[in-house]
Write a structure and sequence with these properties.
Elements: E1 2-3, E2 9-12, H1 21-27, E3 30-35, H2 46-55, H3 60-73, E4 84-90, H4 91-95, H5 101-115, E5 120-125, H6 127-130, E6 139-144, E7 148-154, E8 159-162, H7 165-181, H8 185-201
Parallel strand pairs: 3-4, 4-5
Antiparallel strand pairs: 1-2, 2-8, 3-6, 6-7, 7-8
């Protein structure tokens, strides 16, 4: 069930049900995804997404349908004139083993392929600077024409969409702060490649 407790905020009681996210992504001109512990959904491999859902105790009979939906969302990045996408990811998300080291190696290689797209930039926040930058939660900013934006926040039991401009500005400033704490895109790619090789050796 959806609830709207005040203007500019939507609450969905479970992240495991269809959401407005795919529709919003289809209309957006740019995204900023800041992820603390997992890969952003738009760059997850199917096997990574599947293993993550299993670990999160998702109903087994629904997992494949959800994985398919996630893969369909990713088509937005391959369309003509695709949205710009900035991925800010904490080092721990690169090292956290979801499924197996082999799954992680393939996931990080897929992340590198995504980062090679001209509309995408990758920013890795090293563990030594993440705490100093206040990187303590994940968030997803979707930007639209006419200077409109939405922020998505997700927990294990709910998804919140925020439209209030003052609150969105807080997340914009935090994203900028994380960008300053992160490695630049070129060094981020090298960093991810090094960790992918570590997973491959395990």
């Amino acid at each position: 069930m959806d609830r709207q407790n005040d203007p500019g905020r939507w609450i969905l009681e479970s992240p495991l049900v269809p959401t407005p996210l795919a529709r919003l992504e289809a209309e957006a001109t740019s995204f900023v995804s800041a992820e603390l512990v997992v890969m952003p959904g738009l760059v997850q491999t199917a096997e990574y997404a599947r293993e993550m859902m299993k670990a999160g105790d998702a109903p087994p009979e629904l997992i494949e349908g959800w994985v398919d939906l996630r893969m369909e969302r990713q088509l937005i990045l391959a369309k003509n004139n695709p949205p710009k996408f900035d991925i800010i990811v904490d080092e721990i998300a690169l090292r956290r083993v979801i499924g197996s080291h082999a799954v992680m190696a393939r996931q990080l290689r897929a992340l590198l392929e995504a980062a090679d797209r001209p509309n995408m930039r990758l920013w890795v926040v090293p563990a030594e600077t993440g705490g100093l930058a206040g990187f303590d939660s994940s968030f997803y900013i979707l930007n639209f024409p006419r200077d409109e934006s939405v922020v998505q926040l997700e927990t294990k039991t709910s998804i919140v969409y925020i439209e209030d401009k003052e609150k969105i500005d807080i997340f914009r400033r935090h994203a900028a702060k994380l960008g300053k704490a992160a490695l630049d895109p070129a060094r981020s790619v090298d960093f991810v490649a090094a960790i992918a090789r570590e997973h491959e050796r395990e």
